[in-house]
C-alpha cells in the first residue's frame, strides 16, 4: 500500500507522455487527488496510536545492509498529508499553465514521489536518495519555468543544497560506521544508538548531519540560497520548495538526529536553541526590510523554521520538564504542517500577483482590495495565519513551541524562549506593512492590472486556508496523531 | 460577591476540554464573567441597533460580531490558552474595524499602531503561559497563584504588561488615540464592553495572583492611579470630542485597574459596568454629531445625561461606583487615595468640558426611533447603574457617607466651574497625549526598522557575499590551475598526451555539460567512496 502511494505519481509521470495534451492538467490533478485520498486513508487506518504502520522492508543493497525500508507514523503521516494537499493545490493552480505543460506535470509528479518517499523512508540511504533527487527535480523546475535570473538562482540553489547533501551523506556514513553492526536502517539505529561510548565522534557526526539538514531547513547562516531560489521560481515551485522541501531538514532532525544521536543532541542542545533563536529573530527582521513580496515571504520561512529548531533544541536540554518538552516537539511538528499550508498559500498568492502585473515590488502596488476583493481577503487570511493569529494553524504551533520551550523550566530555555516571543511582534509588523502597502490604502502604479482570482486559483488556495483554519480551531485530530510520536522522541532523546 | 447575584444567574460549571492534549482548558461562567457577559450583550445590542440605521455593509457586522464573540471567549476562559485565543482575535478584529475605511492610508496606519501596540504587550501573555507551565505545570488561571517563585512573579509580570497594553494604560495609552480612526459604533463598543476593559477584567480576575507575588498589586495600583490622573489631564486638554472621550476612557479604566490592585474587586466591577453604559452612549452621540453635523433634542439630552454621569455627579452611576473604588483604595494607602481623588476631580472637569459641546451651534436633524431607543436605554443604564453600589448588590461595605457627599459636591462644583469659565488650559503635552506615540516611534519603531535594514544589508553583503566569495574563489583557483599549472605540465606531458589523446576522446564523452549527467557521475563517485569507507571501516 505505502509503496503504491510512493510510486503512484512516478508511474503517472511515466504514462503522461501518452496522454493527450489537453488532458494533461486534469490527469495530473486527478493523480494528485488520488494520492491525497490514499494518504488520508492511511492516516485513518493508522489512527492516533503510536508505532509504525504500513511497514515494508525489502533487501536492497545487502552488502551495506541498506534496505528499501518504508513505513509511516505520527511524524510522517501529517507531513505526508500536507505534502499531498500541497501538490494537489499546485496541480489545480497550474490548470491554466500553458508553457511545456507535459514536462511540468511530469516533473511535479516525479517530485511528489520523491517527497512522499522521503517522509516514508526508514533507511538512511533511501532517505538520502530521495533527498538528493528532490534537489535535482527542483533545479529543473526553477531553471525551466522560472523567471528573471533563473539560471543563476537555480545553479546557486543546486550547488548550495547539493553541498549540504554531501555533508549530510558524510554524517550518514558516520552513523553507519558508528553502529554495531554497521547498518543504514533507521529503526535499528534508533533502537541502539551508534557511538556508544565515543562522544567525540558522535559530536562530529551530529555536526555533519546538522549542517546537512540545516542548509536544507534553512537555518541562519546557511539560508542565502533561499531568497533567490524563491524569487525566480514559478509560484507552484516556490510553494513546493517552501511548503514541502524545507520540512525535509527539520523532519530529518526529528527522525534522524535526535533519536540516533541522543547524547550529542543533549550535549549541544544549547547550540540548537541559539541557532533557532537567531533564525527566528534574524529571519523576521530581514523580512521586515524587504521590498520584494517573494523575498519577504522567503525570509519569514527562515523565521518560522527557526521556531522548529528552537523547540527541538529545548527538547534536548537536560533537566527540562518532560511534559513541556513534549509540548514543544508537538508544536514543532505542528509548525511543519502549518508552515507548509500557509506559506504554500502565500507563495501561490505571490504567483497570482506576478501573473497579473509581472512584478513583486511592494512599492508599486496599493489598494488591491478595490479591483480584487476576494484576492485581498485571501491575502489577509494567509498573512494573519502566518503571523500566528489564534483560530488559524500558526498560533497552535507557535503557542506550543513557545510555551513548551519556556515551560521546560531551565534558565537557558526560558531566556531563549522569551526572546523568541519577540519574533511574533516583528512578523506581525511585517505582514501589516505588507497589507498596508499592497492590499490597502490608495491605488498604486500597477494596481489597475490586478484582476481578481480565477476559479482554479481559488480552488487551489481555499483548501489550504480552510485546513489552516481547521487546525487552528479543532487541532486535536492532528495533535493526537503527533502526541505519541513526541512522547517517544522525548523518551529517546532522554535515554 | 453577594448571594443575591449568585441567585440571579447561578454558576455555570466549567466546561472542561483540552484544546491541546494534556493541558486542561475550558470556558466557565462565574459572577465576574457573568456580569461582563451581560454588559457585553446589552452594549452590543444597543450599538448594533444604532449602527443598523447608519447603512454599514455586511463586513462591518461580521467583524463586530466576531469582535464581541472574542470578548465573550476572553471573559469566560478558565486558562491562559483559551484566554489568549480570545484576546488576540479581539485585537485582530479591532485592527480590521479601526481600518474599516481601508482606502484611507492614515486610517490603516492607525489600525497598524493599535494592533502592534497591543500585540507588543500581548507578548507578556505568551511568556506568562510558558512561565506558568514552568512554575505551576498548568495553564489554568486558578493554578497561577500557586506557582513556584520566581516563575510566579514572571507570570504576574507578563499578565500585568499584557493587561496594561490592552487597557491602554500608561505607557501604552497612545494606541487608543489612534483607535479613534474607526467608525463611531466601533469606538462605542471598543471603549465600553470589549477590548480596553479586557485588561481591567484580567487584572480583576487574577487578583489572587497579584496578591500572591507581593509586589504586583502595588505596581498595578500605581499604574492605574497614574493613568487616571495623567490621562485625565490629557482628556481635559483635548480640542476634539472623540479624542477627549478616548483619553477619558484611559482615565476611567485607570480606576478599574486601581481597584484590581487595591483589592476593591466589586467596586472595580461596578465601575466597569457603569462606565460601559456611559461611554458607549457618549460615543454614539459624538458619532452622530460628527456624521450629521447636528442632532436633535433627544440626542442632546441623553448626551447630557452621559456627560454628567461621567463627571460623577450624584446620584448618577459613576458617582457611586468610583467612590466605592476610592473607599477600597483608602484602606490601602493614603498616597494612592490622594492621587485617585485628584483624578476624580479631573474627571469632573473633562466631563464638564465635554458638556460644552452641547452649546455649540449645529443643525437640527431628525434622528430615527431605531437610534433613539438604544440611546435612551443606554442613558437609563448610565443614570441608574449606581444601584450596583448599594449594599447587598455587589457585597463589600460601600464608602462612608461623608466621602460620598464630599465627592458629589466636588463634582458638581468642578462641572459648574468649567461651564462658567468655559476655558481650560490646553498644554501641548496634554494635547499630544504626553508624546507617548512619538516616544514609541523614536524609541522602538525607528530602531527596529534600522536594525531590520542593517541586517538586510548585512545579509546581502556579508552572509551572501561570503558564499559568493567562496564560489568566486573556487572559479579563480580553477582558472589559475588551468593557466599556470596546466600550461607547464602540458609541455612536459606533450608526448604522453599524444599517446593519451585517444583515451582523452573517450573521457570527453561524459563531459556533456548537462548537469544531470554530472550528477549521475557524482553519485557513482560517492558510491565508490561508500564502498571504500565500508571496506576501511
Automatic annotation (TrEMBL), chain A:
Transmembrane helix listed as a keyword: yes
Domain NADH:quinone oxidoreductase/Mrp antiporter transmembrane per the UniProt entry, residue ranges: 121-418
Stretches that traverse the bilayer: 75-94, 101-119, 125-145, 157-177, 197-215, 235-256, 268-289, 296-316, 336-353, 374-397, 409-432, 458-478
Location within or outside the cell: Endomembrane system; Membrane
Membrane topology: Multi-pass membrane protein
Presence of keyword Transmembrane: yes
Keywords: Membrane, Transmembrane, Transmembrane helix
Pfam families linked: Proton_antipo_M
Similarity field: Belongs to the complex I subunit 4 family.
UniProt-listed PANTHER family: NADH-UBIQUINONE OXIDOREDUCTASE CHAIN 4
Protein name: NADH-quinone oxidoreductase subunit M
Organism this protein belongs to: Actinomadura meridiana
UniProtKB/TrEMBL annotation, chain B:
Domain of life: Bacteria
InterPro entries in alphabetical order: ND/Mrp_TM, NU5C-like
Pfam families: Proton_antipo_M (PF00361)
Subcellular localization: Endomembrane system; Membrane
Keyword Cytoplasm attached: no
Membrane topology: Multi-pass membrane protein
Domain NADH:quinone oxidoreductase/Mrp antiporter transmembrane residue range list: 77-346
UniProt entry keywords in alphabetical sequence: Membrane, Transmembrane, Transmembrane helix
Protein name: NADH:quinone oxidoreductase/Mrp antiporter transmembrane domain-containing protein
Organism: Actinomadura meridiana
Top-level taxonomy: Bacteria, Bacillati, Actinomycetota, Actinomycetes, Streptosporangiales
